[in-house]
């Protein structure tokens, strides 16, 4: 048999395998071109090099080269007294740390909770300069040396070394570092290490230092171990122009020096052992950069975007520009679009949640019907779009101050630094939300477009709404209620919102630094209700409270818009995206009203559904699927499908006239405090008489060490406790029997690091009867609204009382004033109808179990055909053949399956392609068999050679 005879079956087999793998990857959504699946970057022996201009560099106006250029700080401003004594905007460069934003130019710090108010940090010695360690509570100290350079030392926890300084008016004016540093760095020979330039990795895990007496070294933040990686290449100079950078994993370091014509990348994983000075394997990319940038005079601000990409600023005759460098033949986006953010971006309330994001561990509730996925399906077909938005996300979940310590939003979170590289790679390649900082996905995939939605959880929007709804969901209180109805309460909220501006701005700057070529859009929040309409029973807010929610969202959007302007990022106004379909506005509603809590509390069984109770469901007051469609349309319309720049040069900060109505409330005389919403307990529902554990992160909330604070539950209980040496509070207290049932505030009161009265607030549900949470006469096990008093009305006949049915046929209750029935008009409880049991079903039968609607597709599975409050496949407990009809039948179990029957590696968005793939594979098999069976005939008719 000749080679030609062998070719046909081999070719058929190869074609079969190739087609099978290719089409399986297309249909099942196996990630392609992801950063996790790329070959290992080779900076030392590159086969190709790419240098790409990203755009002009927006200068901060400092006009000089100093240590700030090596620090990963972000340009900002703060208010300070000028020469005339008036408050003026002062420029600064802020470094995010565990304690708050550190002013690297003026040695000042804005402790968490008061970032906009920078407090001078004065060294105990005039010769000592302080440098913040990013993502840490440590501070480096440098003291000038007569031998050249400066001795390098460390304060491990700066807050434990400071003393408060007060002025004549008893106001805090500064903090003085009263102690010498804890630790002095030394060379391998034991001499004090002298440095003239330092740089940190973005995550704060590593420090790279140019020394006067040990060459270039890397320092591990955890162990403080020092390793040499390069010898010095010039004599001492006074201009300190060497630029340094180190990657987040500590593997690669960069030394850039214009005069020496160096932009050298070192691979520290290939360094030799021992303490001797050494030059680790490296490659100089200076000629590549100089050949691309005409008239190059200087390179500054060198940064690792990721292990495969560098960013730097060039200075030439035409100005300053941002460039990217990679040891590859091409630099480009690995995906078209990436969505970051909170519940409004995740699609909380649209249901159809991505597998794994609606479990006891992960509550990200990333909906496959959220606007990022709707946009992706409309715009992208090649590299596609992805979302890692997660319900409940705050700014710290997108760009955490301590990236290495970040534990995510899951209940079993593990610090990033403790996750293996393989585990992180898997999470990145599968776009798993809630475990890694969201910024890491932007850094890895360099998307062409990024949208981000954040700020609502940082002002505690859900907690604010819970406080407003609380009096309406208990039978003990009537509907005459106006939440946040005093000047002092409104002022505290307005201040809290205003304080988010620098935080949102810094978040956008950090995202831009990690994805410099992406078009970035900050998405505002939609108005969810009107205050002059007819409200359904599930709204549970009166006219004044609805007006308050509108003012609150308006104020937050204005602050977000200003932050985007200052960060040179596009702001997308979607405030009117749901107009005509907001709560209380019409029959076609795009927003959920109040829903029953399904996560965070004790496990309950209501009918066929098991869930963990909370007073309010997280889907409450969030856009439903229709709302997400309207948001997608608004975003695409305003951005022309992400093809236009919609930045605005005008200022959007609220003016006095804008906020006059918001603050136009009677004064109560109560003291004004610094309001800080926070999750300070993992318990969501508790019975009177039980104990609750309060856990406050002192650094994150800006609390003072060794200071007395008062912990209170509602208005009937208070306990004094003392914070530890880091400001943390960990105390267990009992819930007194006199505590009223329903949602109650948990507060921690005392002074913050700025010496201001501060109140940290969370909300917990208190129950007086564990068998009937809402005391409405319907036991939890048969109450569709176990935490909310029943109305006795089920207008859409879905088995869920309208008081907690997210979407109902609106019932005309008259004007939105007062937003629901009065105490005298409130209907009685729903009679106990008993729990649902099993039901015999045939193929094609439409199922309705609680909120789940599905169709029995076969004897093995149930196909979900309609969006519902609990969109999960229904598990069959028994399958048999009907003896009369011959059709397969089954019995529905008493609860919804808690896990999908589809393998986790399948992309649900592309499940529609599975049947097509199976058919295609069958045809390939047929063709392959035909090719093999015709092999003999092909040989027979082939002419002899």
Kindly describe this structure.
By secondary structure, this protein is α+β, with helices and mostly antiparallel strands. Helix content is 19%, strand content 26%. It contains 16 helices and 44 strands. The strands form 10 sheets. Strands 7, 8, 9, 12, 13, 14, 15 and 16 form an 8-stranded antiparallel sheet that branches. A 7-stranded mixed sheet has the order 2-3-4-5-6-11-10. A hairpin with a 4-residue loop joins strand 18 (252-257) and strand 19. Helix 10 crosses helix 11 (543-566). The longest helix has 26 residues, at 3-28. The protein is globular and about 85 Å long. The two termini are 12 Å apart. The model is unreliable at 1-39, 60-65, 605-611, 649-653, 810-919 and 934-945 (pLDDT under 50).
Largest beta sheet, briefly? 8 strands, antiparallel
Specify the number of helices.
16
Q: What sort of overall outline do the alpha carbons produce when their principal axes are compared?
A: globular
Poorly predicted runs: 1-39, 60-65, 605-611, 649-653, 810-919, 934-945
Oligomer: single chain
Distance between the termini: 12 Å
**What do the pLDDT scores average to?**
78
Number of DSSP-assigned strands = 44
Structural class: alpha+beta
What is the beta-strand fraction?
A: 25-35%
Cα Rg:
31 Å
How much helix, percentage-wise, in residues? 10-25%
């Amino acid at each position: 048999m000749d080679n030609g005879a062998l070719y046909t079956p081999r070719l058929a087999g190869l074609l079969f395998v190739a087609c099978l793998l290719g089409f399986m990857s297309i249909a099942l959504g196996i990630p392609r071109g992801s950063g996790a699946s790329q070959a290992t970057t080779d900076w030392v022996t590159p086969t190709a090099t790419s240098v790409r201009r990203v755009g002009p560099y927006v200068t901060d106006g400092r006009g000089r080269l100093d240590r700030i250029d090596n620090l990963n700080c972000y340009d900002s401003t703060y208010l300070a007294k000028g020469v005339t004594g008036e408050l003026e905007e002062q420029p600064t460069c802020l470094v995010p740390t565990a304690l708050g934003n550190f002013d690297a130019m003026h040695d000042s710090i804005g402790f968490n909770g008061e970032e906009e108010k920078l407090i001078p940090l004065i060294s105990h010695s005039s010769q000592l300069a302080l440098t913040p360690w990013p993502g840490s509570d440590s501070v480096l100290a440098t003291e000038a040396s007569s031998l050249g350079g400066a001795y390098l030392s460390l304060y491990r926890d700066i807050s434990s070394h400071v003393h408060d300084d007060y002025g004549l008016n008893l106001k805090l004016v500064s903090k003085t570092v009263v102690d010498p540093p804890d630790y002095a760095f030394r060379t391998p020979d034991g001499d004090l290490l002298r440095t003239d330039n330092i740089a940190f990795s973005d995550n704060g895990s590593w420090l790279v230092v140019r020394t006067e007496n040990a060459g270039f070294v890397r320092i591990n933040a955890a162990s403080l171990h020092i390793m040499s990686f390069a010898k010095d290449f010039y004599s001492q100079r006074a201009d300190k122009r060497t630029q340094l950078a180190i990657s987040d994993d500590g593997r690669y370091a960069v030394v850039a020096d214009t005069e020496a014509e160096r932009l050298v990348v070192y691979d520290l994983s290939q360094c030799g052992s021992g303490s001797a000075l050494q030059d680790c394997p490296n490659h100089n990319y200076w000629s590549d950069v100089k050949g691309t940038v005409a008239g190059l005079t200087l390179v500054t601000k060198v940064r690792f975007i990721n292990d495969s990409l560098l960013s730097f600023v060039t200075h030439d005759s035409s100005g300053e520009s941002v460039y990217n460098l990679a040891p590859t033949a091409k630099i480009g986006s690995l995906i078209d679009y990436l969505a970051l953010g909170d519940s409004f971006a995740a699609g909380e309330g649209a249901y159809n949640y991505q597998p794994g994001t609606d479990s006891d561990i992960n509550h990200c509730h990333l909906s496959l019907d959220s606007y990022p996925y709707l946009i992706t399906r409309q715009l992208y077909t090649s590299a596609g779009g992805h979302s890692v938005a997660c319900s409940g996300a705050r700014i710290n979940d997108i760009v955490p101050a301590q990236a290495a310590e970040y534990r995510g939003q899951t209940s079993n979170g593990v610090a990033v630094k403790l996750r293996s590289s393989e585990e992180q790679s898997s999470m990145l390649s599968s776009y798993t939300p809630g475990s890694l900082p969201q910024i890491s996905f932007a850094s890895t995939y360099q998307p062409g477009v990024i949208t981000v939605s954040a700020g609502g959880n940082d002002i505690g929007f859900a907690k604010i709404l819970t406080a407003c709804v609380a009096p309406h969901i208990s039978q003990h209180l009537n509907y005459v209620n106006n939440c946040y109805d005093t000047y002092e309460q409104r002022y505290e909220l307005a201040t809290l919102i205003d304080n988010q501006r620098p935080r949102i701005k810094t978040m956008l700057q950090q995202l831009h630094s990690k994805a410099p070529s992406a078009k970035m859009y900050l998405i505002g929040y939609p108005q969810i209700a009107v205050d002059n309409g007819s409200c359904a029973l599930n709204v549970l807010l009166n006219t004044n409270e609805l007006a308050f929610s509108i003012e609150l969202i308006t104020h937050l959007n204005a602050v977000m818009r200003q932050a985007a302007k200052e960060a040179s990022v596009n702001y997308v106004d979607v405030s009117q995206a749901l107009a005509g379909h907001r709560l209380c506005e019409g029959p076609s509603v795009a927003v959920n009203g109040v829903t029953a809590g399904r996560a965070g509390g004790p496990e309950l069984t209501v009918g066929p559904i098991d869930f963990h109770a909370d007073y309010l469901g997280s889907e409450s007051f969030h856009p439903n699927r229709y709302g997400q469609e309207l948001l997608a349309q608004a975003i695409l319309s305003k951005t022309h499908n992400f093809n236009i720049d919609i930045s605005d040069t005008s200022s959007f900060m609220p003016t006095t006239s804008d906020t006059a109505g918001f603050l136009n409330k009677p004064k109560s005389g109560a003291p004004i405090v610094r309001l800080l919403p926070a999750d300070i307990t993992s318990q969501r529902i508790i019975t009177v008489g039980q104990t609750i554990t309060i856990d406050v992160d002192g650094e994150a909330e800006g609390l003072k060490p060794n200071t007395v604070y008062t912990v209170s539950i509602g208005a009937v209980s208070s306990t004094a406790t003392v914070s530890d040496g880091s400001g943390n509070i960990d105390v267990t207290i009992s819930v007194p029997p006199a505590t009223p049932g329903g949602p109650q505030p948990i507060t921690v009161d005392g002074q913050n690091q700025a010496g201001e009265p501060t109140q940290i607030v969370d909300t917990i549900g208190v129950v007086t009867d564990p068998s009937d949470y809402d005391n409405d006469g319907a036991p939890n096990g048969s109450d569709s609204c176990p935490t909310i008093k029943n109305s006795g009305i089920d207008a859409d006949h879905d088995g869920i009382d309208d008081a907690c049915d997210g979407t109902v046929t609106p019932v005309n209750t008259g004007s939105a004033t007062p937003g629901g029935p009065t105490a005298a008009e409130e209907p009685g409880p729903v009679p106990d109808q008993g729990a649902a049991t099993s039901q015999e079903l045939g193929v094609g039968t439409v199922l309705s179990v609680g909120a789940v609607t599905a169709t029995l597709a076969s004897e093995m599975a149930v196909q979900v055909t309609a969006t519902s409050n609990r969109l999960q496949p229904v598990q069959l407990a028994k399958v048999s053949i009907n003896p009369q009809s011959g059709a397969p039948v089954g019995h529905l179990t008493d609860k919804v399956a808690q896990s999908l029957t589809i393998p986790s590696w399948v992309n649900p968005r592309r499940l529609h392609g599975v049947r097509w793939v199976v058919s295609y594979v069958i045809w390939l098999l047929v063709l392959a068999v035909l090719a093999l069976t015709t092999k003999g005939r092909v040989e027979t008719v082939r002419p002899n050679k």
